[in-house]
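Posting for a labmate who doesn't have an account.
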Amino acid sequence: MQQARIAALKAQIGGSRDGALLRYALARALLEAGHDESAISALREALQFDTGYSAAWKDLGRVLHKCGDSEAAAEAFRKGIAVAEPRGDIQAAKEMRVFLRRIERETAAGRTD
């Protein structure tokens, strides 16, 4: 089921509907199918279309952290917070702050051990 959805979304890339929303939808389908590395690429592509897409920043940070790149995840959350607040996307900013604090705590704990 997911593979068919992924294929259908990929088929639209480069077409008239290509953009941040399509790339984000592809990333979400890839995440659901467990294709984290491909999802990272799709999220970065979505952000090339729209750097103000706070949901893409949030998901990018989460999947980067899941894949073990805490530094890149923290940077994604910082960028996401910076774009979410001026747009009034308060909930996304709050969520990204929580994830960012968690990463900062993990990093600090790792340095003190």
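Reply:
Got it, the structure tokens are right above this. The chain has a mean pLDDT of 95.
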